[in-house]
């Protein structure tokens, strides 16, 4: 029997098809993004980066990770050289022993910590020009009205509601209203909770009728609380 000739000086081949190579590259990209987000979260918690540095970087990394997750999950194993199949992000992190609670929370939420826990609770933030404050208030009003109109028009899909809700929370934060970290009566926290709920869904998934009704109720309550905070009430 002829022996198998092995050249010890040749480079080991990890995959034999371009499809397998792409899948491994996608997994590697997601892995590196998860580690990058974790490093950023730790730097933010330890005050090694400012809010101005953290927020745009986190937003960009979250957007990249969201796209990468779509490429990795549900791809299946069509070739022996393919990476193991995973159904969602949690399964991917367990597969590669990524025990990173800060990153898991940030990815599940889908927004930077500066929006989840905005600093300062004054309804009249100092250092903001009057023209900018008026612009922020107008943008926040428009964001809330657009979101409420979408719910009243019976829009229920994640890809329809998540961007509108994220914009409302972001505008609220910029406008300076809200009366503290959780907002008046914890209303901001309710909106953040809905962001988490929506972020668990696939883009085409929809909330049910009861959820839509409750979400509209919470958004209307948050809008009223935000408006009262502007008046110092």
Automatic annotation (TrEMBL):
Domain of life: Eukaryota
UniProt entry keywords in alphabetical sequence: Endosome, Protein transport, Transport
Keyword Transport: yes
Function text: Component of the ESCRT-I complex (endosomal sorting complex required for transport I), a regulator of vesicular trafficking process.
VPS28 N-terminal domain residues: 1-117
GO MF: protein-containing complex binding
PROSITE patterns, per the entry: VPS28_C, VPS28_N
Region (Disordered): 113-135
Family statement drawn from the similarity comment of this UniProt entry: Belongs to the VPS28 family.
Positions of the VPS28 C-terminal domain: 132-231
Any single GO BP term: protein transport to vacuole involved in ubiquitin-dependent protein catabolic process via the multivesicular body sorting pathway
Annotated GO CC locations: ESCRT I complex; late endosome membrane
UniProt name for this protein: Vacuolar protein sorting-associated protein 28
Membrane topology: Peripheral membrane protein
């Amino acid at each position: 029997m002829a022996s198998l000739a092995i050249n010890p000086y040749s480079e080991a081949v990890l995959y034999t098809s371009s499809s397998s190579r792409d899948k491994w590259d996608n997994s590697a990209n997601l892995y590196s993004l998860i580690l990058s987000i974790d490093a950023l979260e730790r730097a933010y918690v330890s005050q090694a980066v400012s809010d101005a540095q953290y927020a745009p970087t986190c937003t960009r990394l979250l957007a990249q990770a969201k796209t990468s997750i779509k490429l990795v999950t549900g791809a299946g194993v069509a070739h022996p050289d393919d990476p193991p199949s995973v159904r969602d992000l949690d399964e991917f992190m367990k597969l590669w022993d990524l025990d990173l609670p800060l990153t898991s929370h940030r990815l599940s939420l889908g927004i930077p910590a500066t929006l989840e826990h905005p600093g300062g609770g004054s309804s009249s933030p100092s250092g903001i020009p009057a023209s900018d404050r008026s612009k922020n208030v107008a943008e926040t009003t428009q964001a809330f009205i657009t979101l409420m109109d979408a719910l009243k028009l019976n829009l229920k899909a994640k890809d329809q509601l998540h961007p509108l809700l994220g914009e409302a929370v972001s505008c609220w934060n910029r406008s300076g209203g809200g009366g503290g970290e959780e907002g008046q009566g914890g209303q901001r926290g309710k909106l953040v909770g809905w962001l988490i709920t929506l972020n668990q869904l696939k883009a085409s998934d929809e909330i049910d009728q009861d959820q839509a009704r409750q979400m509209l109720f919470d958004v209307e309550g948050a809008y009223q609380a935000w408006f009262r905070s502007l008046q110092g009430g």
